[in-house]
Amino acid sequence: MVSAAPLVKQPVPQPVGEQRVVLRSLTWQGYLAVRQSLSPDRNTRLTYSQGTLEITMPLEIHEFSAWLIGRFIYILASEFGMKLKTMGSTTLDREMLDRSSEPDAAYYIQNQPLVAGRDVDLDKDPPPDLIVEVDITHTDIDKLRLYAAMRVPEFWRYNGEVWRIYCLQQDHYIEAEMSPTFPKVPKIKLYEFLTVARLDEMEADRILREWVRSLGHS
């Protein structure tokens, strides 16, 4: 009698959002040398923190999620009548802190009037009011410590499934259920927006705008 072979449960493939390369024991000058050696047209994100450099190569799910979250923020700012300066994935250098970052997006909202119409100088200007990072896969650098050191008031992090909001209190972040920048907007609205937008971006825009307008201006 021949017994049947046992069924082997196949692992469910997880989405790959990024590829990462990590370099350690770098000085600030070493980090700058690596950055300058890369193509100006590179499609990578660099994060440097006290000797560790992480080079992230975002793939489609990462880029699309980051773009949709940026669209979500733009619509909210527009509908609530807020000012907005979008920094995109610009490089945030803080040599005195031995840290540098290229987030998926950075925004001036409350402090937009202070930096409107000109380049930002982080040695003189306040940090962005809100930074967004999409990290689908594991990152070696502690982003909470990084942005807390930079004194970024609000940090959004999305891992492809969960959206976390962090608010700076003194020298560290605490997780919050509501964004202080958009206190009328519950977390479920981002999830709804992302779900609809993956099928129809214009429909997601329309639904979100209609919901914000239903709140009135009170």
Any descriptors?
218 residues; alpha+beta; tt1808, chain A; six-stranded mixed sheet; five-stranded antiparallel sheet; 6 helices; disordered N terminus
Task: Describe what this molecule looks like in 3D.
The chain is an alpha+beta fold. The protein has a single domain, classed as tt1808, chain A, CATH 3.90.1570. It is 30% helix and 24% strand. It has a six-stranded mixed beta sheet. The chain has a five-stranded antiparallel beta sheet with strand order 1-3-2-6-5. The longest helix is centred in the N-terminal third of the chain and has 20 residues, at 60-79. The relative contact order is 0.14.
| CATH fold type | tt1808, chain A
Shape: globular
Number of strands: 11
What's the pLDDT, averaged over the residues? 91
CATH classification class: Alpha Beta
Find the structural class using helix and strand composition: alpha+beta
**Uncertain stretches of 5 or more adjacent residues:** 1-14
Amino- and carboxy-terminal Cα gap:
77 Å
Major sheet strand order: 4-7-8-9-10-11
What is the ordering of alpha helices and beta strands? EHEEHEEEEHEHEEEHH
Structurally, how many domains make up the residues? 1
Fraction in helix: 25-40%
Q: Which CATH architecture? A: Alpha-Beta Complex
- The DSSP helix count reads 6
Using the CA coordinates, give the radius of gyration: 20 Å
Main beta sheet = 6 strands, mixed
- What portion of residues belong to β-strands? 15-25%
